[in-house]
Amino acid sequence: MTERAGHLAEAPLTSPQKMLWAGQQMAPNSPLYNMAWLVELEGSPDTETVRRAFDGLCRSRDALRLVIRTSDAEPAQYDSGQPAGRFGAVDVEDDAAARHWAEQRIGRGFDLSRETFEAACLRTRSGDCLFYFCQHHIFTDAWSGRVLLEDLAARIAALRTGREPEPASAAQFLPRALEPRPIPDAVRDHWSAVKRNAVALPRLYGQSGEPGESAAAVVRIPLGSERSEKLSQLVTQDRFAALSRHQAAFNVYATALLAWMHRVSGQERLSLGTVTHGRHAATDLDVAGCMVELFPLAAALDPDETFASLHAKVAETGMDLLRNAAPGASTAGLQGGFNVVLNHITASFADVSGIGRADWLDNGHSDPRHAVRLNVSDYGESAGGELKWLFNASTFDAPRREAAQLHFLRLLDRFLDDPDARIGSVDLADGDDQSVRLTRRQAEIRAEAASPVQDVLDAFAKHLADDPDAPVIAGDGGDLDRKGLAARSDAIAAALAYAGVGQGDLVGLHLTRSPDLVAAMLGALKRGAVFVPFDPQQPAQRLDRIAEEARPALVLSEAALAERWAPAARRLDLADIAPRTAGTPSEGSACDRAYVIFTSGSTGTPKGVVVGRAALSRYAHWAAREFSPVPRARWALHSATGFDLTITSIFAPLVAGGQIRSYREPADGPDLSVLRVFEEDAVDVVKLTPAHLALVTETPRRLENIRSLVLGGEELTTALAGRAQAAFGRDVDIWNEYGPTEAVVGCMSHRFDPVSDTGRAVPIGRPAAATAIYLLDAGGNPAPDEVPAELFVGGIERLADGYFRNSEATDEVFLPDPFAPSRRIYRTGDLGSVARDGTLRYHGRLDTQLKLRGVRIEPAEIVAAAMAHPDVGSCVIRMNAPRKSIAHCTRCGVGTDTPGIEIDDTGVCTTCSGFDSFRERASEYFGDLGAFAGIVKDRARFRRGDYDCLMLLSGGKDSSYALCRLAEVTPRILAATLDNGFISEGAKENIRRVTADLGIEHRFLSTPAMNEIFVDSLKRHANVCNGCFKTIYTLGLKLARDEGIPLIVTGLSRGQMFETRLTRELFETRARNPDEIDDMVLAARRAYHRYPDTASQRLNGNLFDDDRIFDEVTFADFYRYCDVPVSEVYRYLDEKMSWIRPVDTGRSTNCLINDAGIHVHKTERGFHNYAVPYSWDVRMGHKTLEEAQTELDDEIDEAHVRSILDEIGYEIRRPDAEDSELICYYTGEAGPGDVRRHLAKCLPREMIPEHFVHLSRVPLTANGKIDDARLPAPARGGGEEANADFVAPATRTERRLAEIWGEVLNRANIGTADNYLEIGGDSIGAIQIAARCRAAGLAISPIDIFRHQTLQALAAFADGAAAPREAAKQVRASVDPDNLKKLAALLGKPKS
Amino acid sequence: MHETIREFIEADLVLEREITADEPLLLSGMIDSLGVMRIVAFLEASFGIKIPASDLKISNFGTLNAIAAYVAKRTAA
User: Fold this and answer.
1) What CATH code is assigned to A1287-1387?
2) What positions does the domain Carrier occupy (chain B) (predicted)?
3) Which of A571, A848, A905, A1016 is geometrically suited to a Cys-Cys bond with A1094, CB 3.0 to 4.6 A?
């Protein structure tokens, strides 16, 4: 403590200072926050004068004396009473040498506990005096620089005229830190809302938003007088005017920058960081110190956004920003929401007397979280403005920097020239961009198409002539040589002709994979017909739909399939076609169409894609050349016949003289033929989907024959390709083939290279022969390198003819080729980008990309990250669709909108089928009225007053009936009703009538805290009943004790009993008898009353100080001993009592606030809170299904509900309409928590799925694609996955660390597996933890907490660090520096 | 009203300097956009009006006279 003596004052860091402090901790040795100026002092003052002036400056300005203390938990600043830096004098040759010297010095780091600046007087040989001043940003900013240098110059001027400068009177910084201005609530609310709507960091030029190193590259672009003038002109227009030229110019730059971010990332919602000087009052103007603050400015771009319309949004949002830019209001969370910063600098030194040329020096670094920082120096029309870009060097290499500034200027210039131009219309790419080159390869395409391609039939005929005895088909269904296949296909062609199939007619192929399937395809082509596969694995219904669309002249089928589907069209069994000898001339092949393959259309109706003979032939020859590892390769025919992926495995070998090995699909069950293909290993090439590949990769094996894997149909990730390469060895080529059915199977390919393919997905490579590939942005312009845009495919004989009998759909996507007017292009709807080396990358579908909170999420990216986990086998990401259709249990009526409810194939819900398993045992819990009477009599022995029991009467039918029956047992009853302020008059009347009928005394209970309890209940449970029930029980217990009543009787229904206490687990052990269950219920009751909610806090008093009350007063649930249907209850009350069904609540309950509770529950939780108890009532036979449904289907008067909620003071929390959730399905050994933590390490927060569902196998469709319909819904809550991973701290260090984490993060139960970032830790917290650790004797620095994120790892590190230093070094060295960047990225991210 | 606004600006934004009714406050750079927002907050609190972003123009805030006229118009409505 002695070192504090003499300090004038100490203050915590201000909010902006804290962020700089944390940023510096993350990059301990980087000079990223060094702010330095080199200025020419006019009149060449002598060094001694400058020194004296500077000493005076230090005395006058506390910012030059402040240092930072870090010994306590939180860093603090205090006035050291002396200059916190040194003043040096240096002789240099000339200006250039001075600059060189300064640029060297600026890289020095400061130890902020004693040094925060460096000043130097540089004297050139010619006698000029230059002043160098470098200060850590934590005590300065650009404004302060000017304040200090202006003050210095004035002091020098005074000294030179022989005067002593004015004594210190300048405004000080420390008092502002000591007493920060309070932040108004409205401002806080504004920024909280901004943070809640935070957007994802844009991937500029496809680069991840993750921070890199702090090293930054500076690119300076003079603004030019022409631009300056145009800008001045523009802002004279009323719509671009603002409060000042500065603000008007800022709005223009911000608009252009957002437009740029949009165009080079494809993201529509964007946020950029803007710098405000933070000097709100006149008294702030002369302060030296860090006042500057960063605030986000967000905008959402519409598809047709113009510069002017975006400008209007920016101007409006900018006003909001300024209104709310209160000092200290910007938080780390807000600042994590952008990776692009715009700083519009207006202050210059030009007008400072005594200072000549002034340079703000670059330190070569920038905040690593900012990929791009644009400093616009714009001093108005006179001086030459400048755009100074600071590009993060690890994100923006030189070509990217060049592209970035060029693209920005193109957008800015278009804005200045034509503000009403669409932002999407600006052509950004130029001749150096690969996409432009792609549009220019027309001659190449023509040349590739010029060499003639043999028709598939001619090619096969040629091979037949060369060697008729060569085998061509083997495997399931028998072997055929070429002449055999020719004969069989001729026979089929003849049979088709005989059957009246004409040229161009459609022939359906309802056939299993076999030689006959191949022969039928050839036979159809030989006949001049068009074949249409009818995949026998597809459900009959779908085949019917296809048949309805296709209307085939005839369907070729086989006997074994006759049972499965009977086509409406004429059917011809292949077995009935007689064999014919080879060489019989076919009857011609004049038709230029080959096949129609039906794909699932987005409307639900299958869409037939018509492919011509020429296009099929061109594709088959290319595929055979491209993918065959050997001449005459053998291909496996194992995939679904209705899927165009399979076309390759048949026609590539046919045109190349190779062989087909067929693997017949099973009669039923999943088609896992691909497994057999790899077990047998009897072919050279296998074409398969990535889902197939994931399946076969699970069994690594040495492959003797298979040398080439061709992946198609879905995106191939590098993780999976890499795993496959490892599983099968480097000798196997893994080809990624891209192509929609409309572009004839495949139009691009890329051979996977595990060394150079390091991106998320394997590239889709380069165009196939004679194929045109264009990458065009929304404006139809070729996209710049690395920027995602839509893929278009064209070429010569490379596209399908169009959609079958649907010219409208055809015209929508088959468009004139803008670069080759005589041809067509197909609009794929796929997003791609082109790398600088010319290879294309696939980024998913434009239309199926998930949008979460307005941000595009690429599921493939999450998949790739998950697959990088060694124990994740495969992974599927889905967004839970809004619950469109709700299925209801046929037995109890509960719907799938209720969490945890699933309906099985027989229409029965999980609860009903579960109840079947313990119904028997549960029945033991219930008794009869005799037992009930026994209990009442037994308890009556302990009566201390007038009553045997207290009946809790709601006035509804159930409790009224119970009271009547109770009166048969004893007359000494006190009935009590909670008057919660919303009891209906009808119910009150009923209560009075029934108790009068029975001659029973009755009381209303009430509490002034009722509304408070309702609000608490709505907040906790989204209903009013929980609060009401607890109030009834508590007040009931009080009344019973006061009146000496030994028993409370409730009218709880059996459904409510099951809903609230009789869980399945209670009955799972046979040993549990009803007494044991009662004990457990009692234990639960004790805990229930002591749970600290509002009801307990307001009502308990000393009632539950000990457990005596539970002995004095016991409970009996009437319906435990009485099984009666609701119809009997009504009949009894109607006949015997003057009870009248209530009308004023709209249902047969008695409480008017109930509607409000139901409405809140439905709105906030998405389902009816009575659904579960009513389903139990049905299950127990108390209600019929119809009765329950009727009661649940009641309409709610929203206006009335709103008035009730207003009255009690509750605001409904409407779930964000966009607030969908991501679900991660995966296979493998990893636990859900493992996967979650793994993803948290490599993905931004908004991409971490909310749910993790483990599957033993991913369900696949017949085509080998993922079968969405069979993916299970995730369980709600996800509690078990969080708790399942809890491991209690074990070692001394772990326990101590857990305590410290708990204190700082304000969390209980920290386990060793908990990850610092995941449980809400940030950098300030890390600094506090490190300080407390040091106090506890644990050697941990803030950065260690980010390097060793789990408690266990940190504890291990701390224990290791206590060992010799060498060991500690090794631990550090083993940390992957990349990981650290990712962590830093997470740090600033908004928390969900 | 004139005087209230003048006092606020002189005391809080331009550090005890006297401003005249027609002196350009914004175009001269005397008060920047953050400063205008302080004026806006002050006017909203003092005169019980809500100033929409669309009203934030030089014609309404360029001089002391303009501000006073704007406030008069808004409070009269």
Assistant:
1) 1.10.1200.10
2) 1-75
3) A1016
Name chain A contacts of B34, Cβ cutoff 8 Å: 276-277, 279-280, 322, 325
Query: Which among B15, B37, B58 has CB closest to A322?
Result: B37
Q: Which of B12, B29, B53 sits opposite A319 (nearest CB)?
A: B53
Residue A667 CA to residue A535 CA, distance in Å, equals 12
**Structure confidence by residue, pLDDT tens digits, A1334-1380:** 778 888 877 778 778 788 889 888 887 654 333 333 333 333 444 43
Q: What is the pLDDT of residues A9-63, one digit of tens each?
A: 789 999 999 889 888 887 888 899 999 999 999 999 999 999 999 999 999 999 9
Q: Which of B56, B59, B63 to mutate to test the interface with A (most CBs of A within 10 A)?
A: B56
Residue in the structure block whose two tokens are 């809004």: A882
DSSP letters for A1242-1304: HS-GGGS-SEEEE-SS--B-TTSSB-GGGSPPPPSS-HHHHHTT-----SHHHHHHHHHHHHH
Question: Which has the closest alpha carbon to A119: A32, A55, A24?
Answer: A55
Measured CA to CA, the distance from residue A471 to residue A463 in angstroms comes to 11
If DSSP codes are grouped into helix, strand and coil, which group holds residue A559? helix
CATH 3.20.20.190 fits A467-579, yes or no: no
ipTM of the complex: 0.85
List pLDDT tens digits, range A411-440.
999 999 999 999 999 999 988 899 999 999
Give the mean pLDDT of chain A. Answer: 85
Q: Quick check: A389 pLDDT over 90?
A: yes
Using CA atoms, how far apart are residues A27 and A231, in angstroms rounded to an integer?
39
Contacts of A322 in chain B (CB under 8 A): 33-34, 36-37
Alpha-carbon gap: B25 to the closest alpha carbon of chain A (Å):
10
Contacts of B58 in chain A (CB under 8 A): 241-244
Element (H, E) at A88: strand A85-92
What are phi and psi for residue A37, nearest 5 degrees? -125, 145
Distance CA A82, CA A59 (A): 8
Chain B neighbors of A283, CB-CB under 8 A = 15
- How far away is chain B from the Cα of A344, in angstroms, using its nearest Cα? 13
**Number of helices and strands in chain B (H, E):** 4, 0
Structural domain boundaries of chain B?
A: 2-76
Minimum-distance CB partner of B56 among A279, A283, A319? A319
Per CB-CB distance under 8 Å, the chain B contacts of A325 are 34, 37
Instruction: Look up residue A1187 and give its DSSP letter.
Output: H
Three state DSSP letters for A477-520: CCCEEHHHHHHHHHHHHHHHHHCCCCCCCEEEEECCCCHHHHHH
The b-or-e profile of A1043-1052 (16+ CB within 10 A means b, else e) is bebbbbbbbb
Is residue A764 scored above 90 in pLDDT?
yes
Which superfamily, per CATH, for B2-76? ACP-like (1.10.1200.10)
Whether the CB-CB separation of A326 and A183 falls below 8 Å is answered with: yes
Q: What is the CATH number of domain A855-881+1236-1282?
A: 3.30.300.30
pLDDT band at A1245 (very low <50, low <70, confident <90, very high): low
Which class is A2-178 in CATH? alpha beta
Residue of A nearest to B56 (CA): A243
Cα–Cα dist A830/A844, whole Å: 6
In chain A, where are the structural domains located? 2-178, 194-426, 467-579, 855-881+1236-1282, 920-1208, 1287-1387
Q: Which fold has domain A194-426?
A: Chloramphenicol Acetyltransferase (3.30.559)
The partner residue sitting opposite B27, judged by closest CB among A244, A250, A346, is: A244
Q: Which CATH class is domain A920-1208?
A: alpha beta
| Residue A1329: pLDDT over 50 | yes
Same fold across A467-579 and A920-1208: yes
